[in-house]
Amino acid sequence: MYSFDVPYRIRYADVDQMGFMYYGNYARLYEIGRVEWLRDLGIRYRDVEDAGILMPVYENRSRYLQPARYDELLTIRIMVRELPKARIVFHCEIWNEEGVCIHTGETTLVFLKAETNRITTCPPAILEKLAPFFEK
Amino acid sequence: MYSFDVPYRIRYADVDQMGFMYYGNYARLYEIGRVEWLRDLGIRYRDVEDAGILMPVYENRSRYLQPARYDELLTIRIMVRELPKARIVFHCEIWNEEGVCIHTGETTLVFLKAETNRITTCPPAILEKLAPFFEK
Amino acid sequence: MYSFDVPYRIRYADVDQMGFMYYGNYARLYEIGRVEWLRDLGIRYRDVEDAGILMPVYENRSRYLQPARYDELLTIRIMVRELPKARIVFHCEIWNEEGVCIHTGETTLVFLKAETNRITTCPPAILEKLAPFFEK
Amino acid sequence: MYSFDVPYRIRYADVDQMGFMYYGNYARLYEIGRVEWLRDLGIRYRDVEDAGILMPVYENRSRYLQPARYDELLTIRIMVRELPKARIVFHCEIWNEEGVCIHTGETTLVFLKAETNRITTCPPAILEKLAPFFEK
């Protein structure tokens, strides 16, 4: 398993009139988590796209355990629990300043060849970087 | 079961650089669907809030079957399959102009008393409007 | 002058914790106004892009006269006061249900050839449709 | 004058199908700049609101000089050029990684007493922190 933490400050733009982060805005946090997780591995997602591979989202599940409020400094924790093949699944936990896990998400992405618009498998460049974390 | 359709035109603001609607923006479509479904029943969500009941999202599942593209005129189809008690589950299908179902979502909301910040059951005003659709 | 009205219902996604539409979300309303104004003229913006012309925003001015609140049904009024040459200027007024003008915006867009990434003049197809409204 | 820099990484959520940051999303960057500028002064905007003062935007001007692209690490530079009275004007410059100023913004906010919904002057707590930067 390979886990990574990214801080996130909640902005006015994120919050609704209940005073909570709008439920659709968590997707942005998952995205930030995934991309910074990749960067930490040594991979820039923009280079993946430049090499002709897109990674659209296929499925997402979110659980809103407790609200996130304006100006809180959250921690986005991203985990990949299995070496990806045709799909990659990112588990996301969001923790608040009091050390409470307030949200969980699970996002499945596929690998798409931009040129042919067809599904493909995880690029070797990503697999190579990930493999050491999944060896016994 | 009570089903309702709402049209939605995809805007530039919704689309990412793949040319697809950004995965986090579907939550807005579900919201539009739910609120217009309620309005069609004769209930304005803002009146529900004014009466002291909030309806935060507890859980959401989304399946991205095919991309949605800029300027497409989508149909948001909202269904409630069970009479709500402590929770209400909205099923959402999104159809494109070619009559293809490109996305499904399932959103569970709870009822919260604003004053006490405690979970409550579905307000009678909503149940009364819904009940006739669930009688045999 | 050519003026056009588009209705817009404010969504939960649009509103901040003051209970007002977030100031950055008015840009979406201007966009909806511009694109529906073009569609009313017989031009689909997506066809303009398919023909190789992009219309990025160069300048924007917004005046927030009164707040817009959740679930209000606004009217977006779009006006073009001068026949475009190298630039097109859209004037936007936003009216609420009480008939009050709560917001004004002024957005200047340029015409860009996608292939060369260079500035160009307004496409003849748009000028032809607009010209009759500016004749004395 | 009091100037402050904040880094901002452009996200997929921010970018449109031209591959540029959507023009409405710059408002979020200004907001981040303003709030971090205040925090650097020793003021948390959430405490200002808790003390009963809201700061809604009254006017905004934006100039889009060059596009901002996905994954670029921008610098948001915030400046306040005059000691605020009834209004506070934030000047914003956005610089890209190549050291080019790609965008300028100018946002005017007012001070509103939440309880009475009436305009007021800049709270003394903010003036005290700012005053030393404007003395000769």
Kindly estimate the percentage of residues of chain A that lie in beta strands according to DSSP: 35-45%
* Category by helix and strand content of chain A: alpha+beta
Largest interface: A-B, 21 and 21 residues
Shape descriptor of chain A: globular
Query: What is the helical fraction of chain A, as a range of percent?
Result: 10-25%
Ends of chain A: how far apart? 11 Å
Mean pLDDT of chain A: 95
Q: How do the SSEs of chain A run, as a string of H and E?
A: EHHEEEEEEH
List the total number of helices of chain A: 3
Q: What's the count of strands of chain A? A: 7
Rg of chain A, nearest Å: 16 Å
Provide the low-confidence segments of chain A as ranges.
none
Oligomer: homotetramer
| Main sheet specs of chain A | 7 strands, antiparallel
Question: What key phrases describe this protein's structure?
Answer:
globular; alpha+beta; 136 residues; homotetramer
Layout of helices and strands:
4 copies of one chain form a homotetramer.
Chain A: E1 2-9, H1 26-41, H2 45-50, E2 53-54, E3 57-64, E4 73-80, E5 87-95, E6 101-113, E7 118-120, H3 124-130
Antiparallel strand pairs in A: 1-4, 2-6, 3-6, 4-5, 5-6, 6-7
Care to describe what's here?
The structure is a homotetramer of 136-residue chains. With 136 residues, chain A is of the alpha+beta class. Chain A is built from 3 helices and 7 strands, in the order βααββββββα. In chain A, strand 6 and strand 7 form a beta hairpin. The longest helix of chain A is centred in the N-terminal third of the chain and has 16 residues. The radius of gyration of chain A is 16 Å and the shape is globular. At the C-D interface, helix 1 and strand 3 of C face helix 1 and strand 3 of D.
